[in-house]
Design a protein that fits this description.
Its EC number is 2.7.13.3. By secondary structure, the chain is α+β, with helices and mostly antiparallel strands. It contains 17 helices and 9 strands.
């Protein structure tokens, strides 16, 4: 569409230019059609169209607008500096030669004006477009390199996070795993001790189950933190083993189904806990199901720590678009204190808020009107679709980046002892360095050619201005011999001066050197002749002397300069 519109505009401009040149109707139509037809061809044959248009411009004025467009297009589309330079040089030479042959400039000043003007029309647009194209190409290359750097930086950061997670997982397994195992072993030994009462055995059993549950949770967290590519046998446990433990009943559930187990464990410890459910149950994504369990677990833990002996209520409300998990407790009963301080890291609620935020939900906590405390979490049903992606066992086995996009996979393999040079010594890829050096070299050539063209243009303008100035000055100080002979002695001064120039020009300075003496009391006007003298240092001069309002003498002589 744009190309058709451009062809139409160039055709109309060609018709107007030919009409201003007083061409015939047939000539106007033919030039307009030719310009419109050559315009789209410049995209396929830039050199040919530029040469043809430059040749036609010498005879047809309508091709002048098309030459500018063809030169711009040729600068963009001609491959290779040598080919482009040859095309533009040939175009300029042909256009200048045909202009001299067909137009036949009347004077050297006219030729001096035509030469830079043709340079502006045929060469300067191509140089500008070529420099602009090279600059745009270099900018695109730099943008691609910047995007690659950002991708590599993200992958390096991901690898650093993965290594840190592996270190944390190892520390957790080595420290907490050992301690939880000791707690479980000692609790198991106490549970079968005959000296304990039945109530004490129940309490010890709760402790043992809690330690076992903590061990399974630790293994689960370690499995998430570890690199999935590593063997699960090194301190962690595979997902298949965890699934077998859950199926066998040896590992507690980590979803909504496990909340009843939390309630039973708290009741066994002597707490008054009530579990309520309301609304029609909806299926939850695995991550949201796990988050619901964590909210109930954190609420119970905080109630046991900060309000021992108070009643606790856990409510699961299935709203139309989300599940609300609420844990509330009453005021702490007025009982004598034990003097023990409660150890709390303050990170549980922060972790819950971050977990639910990633799922598209939210967590709220705060005191109640009766002096208790309330923790509530809202988990959307569509967390797996609309919110952050949920983690599944299959997702845990995937890597952070696809192998096709992994920077490490993009480097070709080399034999031992050999290195694969990817970057230049300045830290840039070799391809980018080559592109920058090539564009810099070609851009420098283009700038040099453009600067030369500008200098030539300025010189041409200066020559033209000088020519106009000299022509104006010569009109004030020079006359032809026939004008000299047409004046007769005795004519009135006003009549003679009306036919002669004023002589007020710097060209008339020094014409009185070696001149014959002027008549006494007369005022003389000395002018140069348009003809040259016989010798190089001689110049013919005409002098007109006036006295009493009349021409009293006219004399022709030679002066030396």
């Amino acid at each position: 569409m744009r190309e058709s519109l451009l062809s139409l505009v160039l055709g109309l401009l060609a018709a107007v230019a030919e009409a201003l040149a007083e061409g015939s109707t047939v000539r106007i139509v033919a030039v307009a059609l030719a310009a419109a037809a050559l315009s789209p061809l410049r995209r396929v044959l830039p050199s040919t169209v530029l040469l043809v248009t430059a040749m036609g411009m010498a005879e047809f004025a309508g091709f002048s607008p098309l030459v500018l467009v063809a030169a711009w297009s040729a600068g963009l589309r001609i491959d290779g500096f040598g080919k482009a330079a040859g095309t533009f040089a040939a175009t300029y030479a042909v256009s200048l030669g045909l202009s001299v042959v067909w137009d036949a400039p009347s004077s050297p000043l006219a030729l001096a004006f035509a030469a830079p003007w043709l340079l502006v029309k045929t060469v300067v647009p191509g140089l500008i477009s070529r420099y602009w194209s090279q600059r745009r190409t270099l900018a695109d290359t730099l943008q691609e390199y910047n995007a690659q750097i950002l991708r590599e930086r993200a992958m390096i950061a991901g690898q650093a996070r993965m290594r840190e997670r592996q270190r944390i997982a190892q520390d957790m397994h080595d420290s907490l795993g050992h301690q939880l195992t000791l707690i479980s072993v000692h609790a198991g030994a106490l549970e079968v001790d005959r000296k304990l009462t039945e109530r004490q055995r129940e309490t010890v059993g709760v402790l043992r189950e809690a330690s076992v549950a903590a061990m399974h949770e630790l293994r689960e967290v370690v499995g998430l933190l570890r690199d999935p590519a590593e063997s699960p046998g090194e301190g962690g446990t595979s997902h298949a083993a965890q699934d077998r433990d859950v199926a066998a009943g040896t590992a507690p559930s980590r979803g909504l189904a496990g909340i009843e187990g939390l309630v039973e464990a708290s009741r066994s410890a002597g707490a008054v806990v009530e579990l309520r459910r309301s609304g029609e149950p909806h299926p939850l994504a695995p991550a949201a199901d796990h988050a619901a369990y964590r909210i109930a677990q954190e609420g119970l833990t905080n109630a046991h720590k900060h309000a021992p002996g108070a009643w606790i209520t856990i409510e699961l409300r299935y709203e139309p678009d989300a599940l609300v998990v609420e844990v509330a407790n009453g005021r702490t009963p007025e009982t004598p204190g034990t003097g023990r301080t409660v150890v709390s890291g303050g990170q549980g609620l922060t972790g819950l808020k971050e977990r639910t935020r990633l799922l598209g939900g939210m967590v709220h906590e705060g005191p109640t009107a009766d002096g208790g405390f309330r923790l509530a979490g809202l988990l959307p049903y569509g967390s797996s679709e609309g919110g952050a992606p949920s983690l599944s066992p299959g997702d845990m086995e995937t890597t952070f980046v696809d192998l096709a996009d992994d920077f490490r996979e993009q480097i070709p393999a080399a034999s031992p002892g050999e290195s694969v040079p990817v970057t230049h010594r300045n830290g840039l890829p070799k391809e980018l360095v080559k592109a920058m050096s090539r564009n810099k070299r070609l851009g420098g050539i283009a700038i040099g050619c453009g600067g030369t063209a500008v200098v030539i243009l300025l010189l041409g303008i200066a020559l033209v201005a000088t020519g106009f100035f000299l022509a104006s000055e010569s009109d004030k100080a020079m006359i032809e011999p026939k004008q000299y002979h047409a004046v007769t002695v005795g004519q009135s001064e006003a009549e003679v001066r009306e036919t002669l120039p004023s002589g007020k020009s710097f060209l008339a300075f020094g014409l009185d050197k070696g001149a014959p003496p002027e008549p006494k009391g007369a005022k003389c006007l000395t002018l140069m002749s348009t003809e040259t003298g016989g010798e190089a240092d001689e110049e013919p001069v005409f002098r007109f002397c006036f006295k009493g309002g009349k021409l009293v003498e006219k004399k022709s002589f030679m002066v030396r300069r």
